[in-house]
Amino acid sequence: MFPATLIGCGALVLWAFLGLFTRLAAGIPPLQLTAMGFAVAGAVGLAVVASTGRLRLLRQPPVAWLHGVGGLFGYHALYFLALALAPAVEANLLNYLWPLLMVLLAAPLRGMRLGPARLAGVGLGFAGCALLVGTGASFPPGAMPGLLAAVGAALVWAIYSVTAGMPRLAQVPTEAVAGFCLGAAALAIVAHLAFEPTVWPDARQALAALLLGLGPVGAAFFLWDVGIKRGDPRLLGTLAYAVPVASTLLLILAGEGAFSTKLILATLMVTGGGIVAAKAR
Fold it and tell me: What is the pTM of this model?
């Protein structure tokens, strides 16, 4: 499992750049940006698959397409809906329930033992994430639809991630993710045209969309597919709490923030949780 888990960690590294690239794309409506990112990811993925002569691998049963496209688009649609209907702090905190849910679902869905040490690790990671992204959260009653959407997004991504490694879906080749990205792009375009105005990107925004499509909304999903199908979802779920910490550090290095005691404590808690989970048996 270790090599595949390590590959899955590559997705976590790329997702750390999501906040930075999204800031670079400021001004583009969320669903339009999602469509642009997935279009780039799908087109590049399709070109790579075609160059290896494996286009036939995109022919997959309906359940694989429902799982792939539904997971990629469903998560992003619910997450953006949450940000539109609820305060960002509260929505982000609830969204980061997905690593915890992923670890917990690994037991009933994949038959993987959890154990107190592993649960302590993921709990420490969530506490660090809550300290970093949830400070000041108040969960106002009027934001309930958005808060429910954030929980829905977390549940969708956790279920998508864990079920990908189950027998029926584990046989779906990673190359098929290129098709799933194109399917998610098509749904995002439809949703964008229905609910958002279209903004013609300038050079900065176009570069951001390209970087998103190549990294956090592109290669990351191919790496994640390998990790969750052949790696350890319990460890990946715990290590996922490093994403908000790394993302914050990158934004600070880009001049978008400043170091704080809260960030240092969150980093130590997330790191400690990852070490505890990695040593669990």
Answer: 0.89
In order, the DSSP letters of 160-200 are HHHHTTSHHHHTS-GGGHHHHHHHHHHHHHHHHHHHS----
Which parts of 86-114 fold into alpha helices (H)?
Answer: 88-95, 98-110
87 is written with which tokens?
């305060």
Please give the Cα distance from 240 to 51 (Å, whole number). 32
Cβ burial of 270 (10 Å; 0-12, 13-18, 19+) is buried
Q: Please give the DSSP secondary-structure letter assigned to residue 28.
A: S
CB 213 within 8 A of CB 17: no
| DSSP label at residue 136 | T
Q: How many CB atoms lie within 10 A of CB 27?
A: 11
Q: Could you tell me how many residues make up the chain?
A: 281
What does the alpha-carbon distance between residue 49 and residue 86 come to, in Å, rounded to a whole number?
A: 40
Q: Quick one: tokens of 55?
A: 């286009």
* Top-confidence residue, 262 or 44: 44
- Look at the alpha carbons of 120, 260, 6, 209 in this order and tell me if their dihedral is positive or negative: positive
172: number of Cβ within 10 Å: 21
Mean pLDDT of the chain: 90
* Residue pair 9/227 in contact by the 8 Å Cβ criterion: yes
Cα 105 to its chain centre, rounded Å, is: 17
Within 10 A of 115 (CB to CB), how many other CB atoms are there?
A: 14
For residue range 54-75, list pLDDT tens digits in order.
999 999 999 999 999 999 999 9
Q: How far apart are the first and last CA of the chain?
A: 13
What lies within 8 Å, CB to CB, of 235 at 6+ separation is 5, 277, 278
Return d(Cα 5, Cα 194) in angstroms, integer: 39
Contact 17, 247 (CB under 8 A): yes
